[in-house]
Amino acid sequence: MLVFDMAGTTINEDNLVYKTLRNAINEAGFSFNLEQVLAEGAGKEKKQAIRAVLSTYAGVEDQQLTDTIYKHFIIQLTEAYAKEDISAQPYAADLFAALKERNILRILNTGYDRQTATNILHKIGWQEGLEYDALVTASDVPRNRPEPDMILFAMQQFHINDSSAIVKVGDSTVDIEEGKNAGCGMSIGITTGAHTKAQLETAGPDYIISNLMELLPLLR
């Protein structure tokens, strides 16, 4: 089983989610830049990301404020995804087809809630059973990245007991931490999204790749 993050890993949206998250936070009276939001928020469930940015850079811990920002963020993100161009990452379709030929399960997981993730997949035309085998979202589990709950949930769905047979791929440090916490056989960073190679290296990935097709030789 391969477990892939969505935005920045398998879907190309030019950090639209984090630009929108930055705008929603700053509308509440802050002035964070995109690099700060990416550093603390990338890969996380989005309320968790808001809390991390506010706490780290402003010393603010206010659940009501977090909830308010999140509500505005979801509205803005829905509007942004409806009008902005998003697409599959280069080589995603080829990789998914190659994995299907090898009878390797292709799981998408994400810090989005299920409705947002489903809207994104609908927009790019991906269908369960064709491009991917299952979707697991932040709203499906009690704990989110870097906790392993989303991967464990996918394992339960497909009756997989050995996490060493799983590979996690993502563009943020919390993706890598999630894979390690789940006991995945490999946790792989990719430089197509939120975090740079140097940032990914801080999480101790097994490999760092620059495009999705670089996965196939590693699987052999």
From TrEMBL:
Keywords: Hydrolase. GO terms for biological process: DNA repair. GO terms for cellular component: cytosol. It comes from the Bacteria. GO terms for molecular function: phosphoglycolate phosphatase activity. InterPro entries: HAD-like_hydrolase_sf, HAD-like_sf, HAD-SF_hydro_IA, HAD_2, HAD_sf, PhnX-like. The keyword Hydrolase applies. This is HAD-superfamily hydrolase, subfamily IA, variant 1. It comes from Chitinophaga pinensis (strain ATCC 43595 / DSM 2588 / LMG 13176 / NBRC 15968 / NCIMB 11800 / UQM 2034).
